[in-house]
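Technical note accompanying the year-one report. For the benefit of new consortium partners, we illustrate the data format agreed upon in the data management plan: each record pairs a sequence with a structure-token string. No post-processing was applied to the example shown here.
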Amino acid sequence: MIGTLDAHDRERVARTGVVPMTEAEGMALFDLALAHDRAVQAPVRLDPAALRAVDAPPPVLRALVRTPRRTPGEQQPAADRIAALAPADRRQAVLDLVTAQAAKVLGHADPTEVDPGRRFADLGVDSLAATQLRNAVSAAAGVPLPAGVVFDHPTPAALADFVCGLRWPDQERGDGSTMAALDRLEAALRTGDAGGDEVVDRLERLLIELRPPADYGDLDTDDLDTIPVDRLYDIIDQGTEL
């Protein structure tokens, strides 16, 4: 498998503390395993220095390395530091956490190289990196995340919103988060490339779907083409006149 990886992928794997083996080394370990009655679960080469540099080594490897002693301030988990913030500041703190972890996974020295609004796939996150990112964000935020979370929430901003909703659900339900999301959307549309006709068409369809069926009474016949079929059924069921 390692033979199919490019230089960037090899470097990323090396940062996890796992050192690639040559084909000869792999075959020798395979022959050695066959010669013993006991099962050998993981014949791997490890880099202890790289393991010590990992923020959260895999549980199976944690006993193999000694992590440096941290100061009391550094020992406080990121989730606790974020929880101590005012609710209005938490979302940005979680977004900073997500972009920082994404930068580490991608090998960027500066988290600002990760655009919060850009899709992970466009940033270079593949399935392996997605798993690493999920694990890193889960450990840092102190909340279990589903396996496909990076693909289901495909930008750093979307992932940060999802993590906030899991970690502080009461806040997300009661702080006007929908309006906050609309504010962020409006700001994004007013800066840079708004996406052109595709975005406009999608927003128009969303507005049509959100309007109560009774409001369609003022539409002209020509406007029927803009109404989704499921909304037309709602209008018919409620007896709204067009």
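Partners are asked to follow this layout when depositing records. The chain has 14 helices and two strands.
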